[in-house]
Design a protein that fits this description.
Elements lengths: L7 H7 L8 E4 L5 H8 L6 E5 L2 H13 L6 E5 L13 E7 L1 H11 L8 E6 L3 H10 L2 E11 L2 E10 L7 H6 L9 H21 L3 H20 L2
Parallel strand pairs: 1-2, 1-4, 2-3, 4-5
Antiparallel strand pairs: 5-7, 6-7
Helix pairs in contact: 4-5, 7-8
This protein binds S-adenosylmethionine.
């Protein structure tokens, strides 16, 4: 089978996987990321998990078609529950909501050590994960914004360590996103969202909260204007 180009959000995630690292692909679904990591020679072995039988059998079909059964282990389980974290280096969790990603990490927390790198691609609200990471003993080592089918996404890369708790504006715009070619567009999207929320609050009479959101929108806009 010909190697497929991945959607931009998965290409961005793959670009942060450390070469030679045994990697977990949590929520593998179609198995595109897991198989690409092997086909491209980035990883010697991948552990791919999914909560549901249907998606996991899709991944299994792809793995078998490509003859990669020796290099990819498939696991029907929530998150990292049945994966051997002690053998794994990089953990990719892509294509899920930030709350689900945080809860997968929360459950795996006792087994996550300095050997692990987290590569996270939430479908929305990465600010939830930036805060979660800072509050749970992780530091961001890289971030990238990407556009996929017209929508903007953030990919966060974190390792165990300390970082200061980010401000609300940093959570929204990223901590390591300076110089990202999409930062200006990202800030425009986020400030528009904040202003819409503020308008809704204003209508409901919550003027103080609305003013706070508008002030945050202004900070985000200023960061966007400063971006190249
Ligand atoms: C939208 S798909 C994303 C697939 C792929 N990772 C991607 O980014 O294209 C989300 C997948 O995650 C699985 N999933 C959701 N919650 C999960 C959990 N707690 N543990 C493992 N898999 C989960 C779903 O069954 C589904 O197959």
């Amino acid at each position: 089978m010909i190697q497929r180009l991945l959607p931009p959000r998965l290409e961005a995630a793959v670009s942060f996987v450390r070469p030679h690292s045994v990697t977990a692909d949590v929520g593998t679904d179609h198995g595109l990321l897991a198989t690409a990591l092997i086909q491209r020679g980035i990883c010697p072995h991948v552990w791919a998990s999914d909560l549901r039988k249907g998606p996991l059998s899709r991944a299994q079909k792809r793995v078998e078609e490509l003859g990669l059964q020796q290099q990819i282990d498939l696991c029907l389980c929530p998150g990292l529950e049945k994966l051997p974290l002690e053998d794994i280096g990089d953990v990719v969790i892509a294509g899920m909501g930030p709350e689900v990603i945080a809860s997968i990490l929360q459950d795996a927390l006792p087994g996550l050590t300095s050997r692990h790198r987290l590569i996270l691609q939430p479908m929305a609200k990465p600010e939830i994960l930036r805060l979660w990471l800072a509050e749970h003993g992780f530091r961001l080592v890289a971030e990238r914004l990407c556009r996929d089918s017209g929508k903007l996404y953030a990919v966060l890369v974190a390792e165990p360590g300390q970082m200061p708790i980010p401000s609300a504006a940093e959570c929204l715009t990223g901590i390591l996103t300076q110089g990202d070619p999409l930062l200006k567009d990202w800030c425009a999207k986020e400030s528009a969202r904040l202003r819409r929320e503020a308008a809704g609050l204003e209508k409901g009479g919550l003027t103080e909260k609305a003013a706070q959101l508008r002030a945050l929108a202004q900070t985000v806009e200023a960061k966007g204007e400063a971006a190249r």
